Amino acid sequence: MAEPPLPPDTAYHGDPRHYDRSRALPPAVRAAIVAALAAALPPTGWVLDVGAGSGRFALPLAAQGYRVLALDASAEMLRHLQAKRPPGQTVPFPLLADAQAMPLAGEACAAALSVHTLHLVPDLPRAVANLRRVLPPHGLMALGYIAHHPRDPVGWVLQAWREALARHGYDLDRPMWRDMPAVEAALARAFGTPRTVVAARWQQPIAASQALQAVAQRMFTPYWGLPDPKHQAIVAELTAAARRVFPDLATPQPDRRRFVWRFYRRPLTAAR
Q1: Reading across the β-sheet that carries 67-72, which strands appear in turn?
Q2: Burial 177-207, CB ≥16 within 10 A → b, else e
Q3: Whole-angstrom distance, CA of residue 231 vs CA of residue 224
Q4: Which uninterrupted H or E stretch holds 78?
């Protein structure tokens, strides 16, 4: 039987500056991602960023004139976002709240976006229902994420981690471990078939040892949730398997990445 996972706490409580460093995007890549999103956004109305964090996308959108509501469950992250706003600027407007219970009126926002957040919520259908509720008919819901090549270090380690969790008897639909296809399926049930845009493609040199270190240090959310002894045991399994796949763990190699937007529209009909 699997050792019980830790109670879910998916808000980021670490140093927001470390968050910014560990999740930084090349400037040209971030600009392309924001441009692809802006091309789909309506020209007026509030844009809700669910899981805005320290403002990676909320801040550049606000700089382009969009009225952005930055919703996040971490007070530390929202304070950091506010500190990064230009002097005198009130947007992105911080909103400390849970995606499952947004304190917003129906149809309050013209559009919503969420990047690497919905896999974290305990009740995904409830969060998706809230997203649909705050959007008007034909309102835009944008889901964004980075897709890693499965044969490159980060993609291989992420898949090996999930396979190890399954071998040890863990439920992969649990918050943090839920994968992107499950999130996309929940959104498709509520909003219909999305339009897909690959906003950017890039490579970043990384050694397999660095990808494994990110797991060991629980740097990213898919690697949260296990008690220390079980976490360390699975890291040891992954390291042994990686030595068979990557003969030289220490040498950086190109890690291929894509940023994908899925653009959904709220339908006129009732939710399925």
Answers
A1: 93-96, 67-72, 46-50, 111-115, 140-148, 253-265, 195-206
A2: bbebeebbebbeebbeebeebebbebebebb
A3: 9
A4: helix 75-84
The amino acid at residue 39 is A
DSSP state of 13: -
Cα–chain center distance at 184 = 12
Beta bridge partners of 95: 71
Q: What sign has the CA pseudo-torsion 264, 10, 84, 17?
A: negative
Rg (CA), the chain: 19
Q: Alpha-carbon dihedral of residues 7, 10, 16, 20, nearest 10 degrees?
A: 130
Q: How far is CA 3 from CA 38, 134, 177, 185, 251, in A?
A: 45, 39, 15, 29, 34
**Per-residue model confidence (pLDDT) at position 1:** 46
Interacting residues of 17 by C-beta distance below 8 A, sequence separation 6+? 80
Per-position DSSP letters for 195-237, written without gaps between them: EEEEEEEEEEEE-HHHHHHHHHTT-SGGG-SS-HHHHHHHHHH
Nearest CA among 262, 253, 146, 162 for reference residue 204? 253
Is 43 buried (19+), middle (13-18) or exposed (0-12) by CB count in 10 A? exposed
Residues 101-160: tens digit of each pLDDT: 999 999 999 999 999 999 999 999 999 999 999 999 999 999 999 999 999 999 999 999
Q: Hey, what CATH class is 16-265 in?
A: alpha beta
Contact 57, 37 (CB under 8 A): yes
Token digits of residue 244: 């068979």
pTM for the model stands at: 0.93
Instruction: Please classify residue 74 by burial: count the beta carbons closer than 10 Å to its beta carbon, then call 0-12 exposed, 13-18 middle and 19+ buried.
Output: buried
211 or 17: which leads in pLDDT:
211
